[in-house]
Specification:
alpha+beta, seven-stranded mixed beta barrel, Ig-like_fold, signal, Pullulanase-type alpha-1,6-glucosidase, Glyco_hydro_b
Length: about 900
């Protein structure tokens, strides 16, 4: 999910969109339970919270004696009114206003037993009425067991060929292992709450589940859940069983795996990243031998891999893969995957028939982005040639080899902030092993769903441990080079820093990988029940500054595109979409004077973005005032928040919201020709590609990729999502009205655009865009000035010499060391005179002077006056000397 999440209405809009993702129909159940799945997501009316062995907080209680009643042994734990200690207040800031109770020292020994059954808090009120509520137990579980369990090895661990299986289940009455159809008892370690069993060599490769007998608050009874291993290393098809698998088994290593040579590590501040969905990449590539699979990224001669290799040669350093861990919403066996039952190509480009037909099979087709985690540390089976067994492990590793061989490092999109389901739902894994622990609960006991689905609680010791352990496994066992955290602001900052620390401890000699070279970035949005550090210090944009872990920056993105991704009218324009300089017919853009003022403010936001979103970078803004990046307004928040280049990640588009081409289709005047749309696409991409700090672009954006105006294509199937590497196949525009669920309100705007054949670009526009973008990547790659390391270095080397009251609307001039970069977003040739450079020798950068964009090659410089002349809708880079 990429987008600004700041105010209430906007958060609700995002939540409404995202809930569709989590509500997608699921395939066959991953595991079974002896209890019927309950629709209630959490322990209803659990307003008491046992935060450690000494203290209970009870929202709504009176400050008189109370008690905990245990259904396990029928005993009562006495509670007396108390107060929170300073450390408790620090650990639970959102609870500081509620009544606190102290556990009677005489009863503290009852806690471990009480936690393994039904638990209620009761109180006789002053009016004589008896108050009763359920009890949330994550805090006391962490206090009693977490510190001792957090360093234990969980899941299958092999020693001299013999596996030990371990699962943390401190509240379970019993846990047994169901191994290949037979039941094997497990032994509980009382100090940690971990259940273990050691097996024999012949257990290797066999399917297993845990039989967990536990009190389940969502159904109000004790159940025996048959559930897969949260620490699974391999799975059977559709995740019905875990497999006893040793990832160090030589049989799972493809040829050359131990000797894999990676491309040179690129610091995050210089990273140029392609965001890619595995199925999109190849499913319609007729030159691929493995369409829709991991192995497509090993097909060196396919059109897709040739294109990625050309981007790598130009300066792209990483491919960011959308979720490739095991997710819940796609049938993994090809025989179970439905296909649209229509001839989709036969319908009109503005018809609603395509989306209707795609929607009928969407719940059971082969497509989903995968933001619905089932098992965090196993590759998704639907991308494997065979989802049964270990093929997915081998093929994921071969994919990493293929990308590395093409000159690209690999980033995984990871989604630890929520699960596909919770409670007794058959797709709930964590919550059916330790009910009420792994999910984040609200003050009334319901599961938090602000992330779109059942939220997790990485602030709890063992959920935080799972995050760290999973990331380390991907880095060590699959040689993944980076991680992008979905909704990272829902993680504690401490959790993400713990990931960084664990990765930094990995060394080539000990672990086969250099963990310090692994890059980390994520979505630092601030919203939901964790907003404004309500529960912990979050991993948000502001808080992650200075950590070396980047956050997506929406500031320049919105300025470049115009408006926000959630505008009711998609025609609101921005810097690269014609605001003021090439206005469209939308009344939402305001009067010419209003447009001019907004455009100039957008230019200030882009300037901040070009610095790397630095908080302390000082410059003269378009009003003539000297300001810092933190002093430029972005919807009530500081535009600049980074402490150093590398803290903020620049982008003009990503998988969320409309593609850049589709955004410009909505915003540029409809009569804008294909060549000019191409030029505006390049200019928009350039604002990220030529910035300080890391930058990301969605795969295919350099090919004018369209999803036929779909703003949320997570479940829209191959028809709307597939990449088209051959320009003769078009760019995806005009494949029908986008799916109604997320787009119907935009259909009145979309229909006339999709019906216009002039908006379906030909080969010239597509190939010109790609070639011009690669030229910009080459400039970034070869010029050290784009890799500055500190705010002081940026302040010294980078300036905006024409910024101020006289700045030209629609034109932005940046001086960077020996370079001058002019972004001309207007439909006219522009002169930019920098008087301080009069007499200096500048010439168009040789990459552009001899490059693919022959219009850009006509940019000129007049030495006598210091005037840079730039063609319409062009970014031109000049070099001194």
């Amino acid at each position: 999910m990429n987008g600004p999440l700041r105010n209430g209405p906007l958060r609700r809009t995002v939540a409404a969109v995202a809930m569709v993702l989590c509500a997608a129909a699921l395939p066959a159940a991953s595991s079974a339970s002896s209890a019927t799945a309950a629709p209630t997501p959490g322990p209803a009316d659990a307003r008491a919270q046992w935060i450690d062995r000494d203290t209970v907080i009870w929202k709504g209680a009176e400050r008189t004696a109370a008690q905990l009643e245990s259904g396990t042994h029928g005993k009562r734990i006495r509670l007396t009114p108390g107060t929170l200690s300073p450390s408790e207040r620090l650990a639970h800031p959102h609870l500081t206003g509620y009544p606190a109770f102290t556990v009677d020292p005489r009863d503290r020994g009852l806690a471990r037993t009480a936690l393994r059954g039904k638990l209620l808090a009761t109180q006789r009120r002053a009016d004589g009425q008896r108050a009763t509520t359920g009890v949330q137990i994550p805090g006391v579980l962490d206090d009693l067991y977490g510190a001792r369990a957090q360093h234990a090895a969980l899941g299958p661990v092999f020693h001299h060929g013999r596996p030990t299986l371990s699962v943390w289940a401190p509240t379970a009455r019993t846990v047994a292992l169901e191994l290949d159809g037979r039941t094997v008892p497990m032994r509980r370690e009382d100090a940690t709450g971990i259940w273990r069993v050691q097996g024999t060599r012949d257990w290797a490769g066999k399917p297993y589940r845990y039989l967990v007998t536990v009190w389940a608050p969502t159904v109000g009874k004790t159940v025996t859940n048959k559930v897969t291993d949260p620490y699974s290393t391999a799975l059977t098809a559709d995740s019905t069983r875990s497999l006893v698998t040793d990832l160090d088994d030589p049989k799972l290593a493809p040829a050359g795996w131990s000797r894999l040579t990676k491309p040179a590590a690129v610091p995050l501040r210089r990273a140029r990243i392609q965001e890619l969905q595995i199925r999109d990449f190849s499913v319609e590539d007729r030159t691929s031998r493995h369409p829709g699979q991991y192995l497509a990224l090993t097909d060196r001669r396919s059109d897709g891999m040739r294109h990625l290799a050309s981007l790598a040669r130009s300066g792209t350093s990483y491919v960011h893969l959308l979720p490739a861990f095991d997710f819940a919403t796609t049938p993994e066996r090809r025989a179970d995957q439905e296909r649209p039952g229509c001839e989709l190509a036969s319908y009109a480009p503005d018809s609603d028939s395509q989306q209707d037909c795609v929607g009928k099979s969407a719940a059971h087709d082969a497509y989903n982005w995968g933001y619905d985690p089932l098992h965090y540390t196993v590759p998704e089976g639907s991308y494997a040639s065979d989802p049964e067994g270990a093929a997915r492990t081998v093929e994921f590793r071969r994919m990493v080899q293929g990308l590395n061989g093409a000159g690209l490092r690999t980033v995984m999109d990871v989604v630890y902030n929520h699960t596909a389901a919770s409670g007794q739902d058959p797709h709930s894994v964590l919550d059916r092993i330790v009910p009420g622990y792994y999910q984040r609960l609200l003050d009334d006991g319901g599961v938090a769903t602000s992330t779109c689905c059942s939220g997790t609680a990485p602030e709890h010791t063992m959920m935080g441990k799972l995050v760290v352990d999973s990331v380390v496994t991907w880095a060590k066992e699959y040689k993944v080079d980076g991680f992008r955290f979905d909704l990272m602001g829902h993680h504690p900052k401490a959790n993400i820093l713990a990931v960084r620390k664990a990765l930094d401890a990995l060394t080539p000699r000990k672990d086969g990988v250099d963990g310090k070279a692994v890059v980390l970035y994520g979505e630092g949005w601030n919203f939901g029940e964790a907003a404004n550090d309500a529960r912990f210090v979050q991993a948000t944009q502001r808080n992650m500054a200075g950590t070396g872990i980047a956050t997506f920056s929406d500031r320049a993105r919105d300025a470049v595109r115009g408006g926000s991704p959630f505008d009711a009218d998609p025609g609101i324009q921005g810097f690269a979409s014609g605001l003021y300089t090439d206005p469209n017919s939308s009344k939402e853009n305001g009067s010419p004077a209003e447009q001019r003022a907004r455009l100039l403010h957008y230019q200030d936001l882009i300037k901040v973005g070009l610095t790397g979103n630095l908080a302390d970078y000082a410059f003269t803004d378009t009003t003539g005032h000297r300001v810092k990046g933190s002093g430029v307004d972005y919807n009530g928040a500081p535009a600049g928040y980074a402490a150093a280049p590398g803290d903020a990640l620049a982008y003009a588009d990503a998988h969320d919201n409309e593609t850049l081409y589709d955004t410009l289709a909505y915003k540029l005047p409809q009569h804008t020709g294909a060549a000019d749309r191409s030029r505006m696409q390049v200019l928009a991409l350039a604002t990220a590609a030529l910035s300080q700090g890391p930058a990301l672009s969605q795969a295919g954006s350099d090919l004018l990729r369209s999803k036929s105006l779909d703003r949320n294509s997570f479940d829209s199937g191959d028809w709307f999502n597939a990449l088209h590497w051959k320009c003769a196949d078009g760019n995806g525009f005009g494949r029908g009205l986008p799916p109604a669920a997320d787009n119907k309100d935009k259909w009145p705007y979309a229909k006339p655009l999709l019906a216009d054949p002039a908006l379906r670009p030909g080969c010239a526009a597509i190939s010109d865009t790609s070639a011009a973008y690669r030229d910009l990547l080459r400039i970034h790659e070869t010029e050290p000035a784009f890799g500055l390391t500190t705010t002081a270095a940026v302040q010294k080397a980078l300036s905006f010499p024409l910024s101020g009251k006289a700045e030209t609307p629609g034109v932005l001039t940046m001086r960077l060391g020996d370079l001058v970069v002019v972004f001309n977003a207007t439909p006219h040739r522009q002169d930019q005179t920098v008087r301080d450079l009069a007499g200096e020798r500048y010439a168009l950068h040789p990459v552009q002077a001899h490059g693919a964009d022959r219009t850009a090659a006509t940019a000129s410089y007049a030495r006598s006056s210091g005037t840079f002349t730039v063609p319409a809708r062009t970014v031109a880079v000049y070099r001194h000397g």
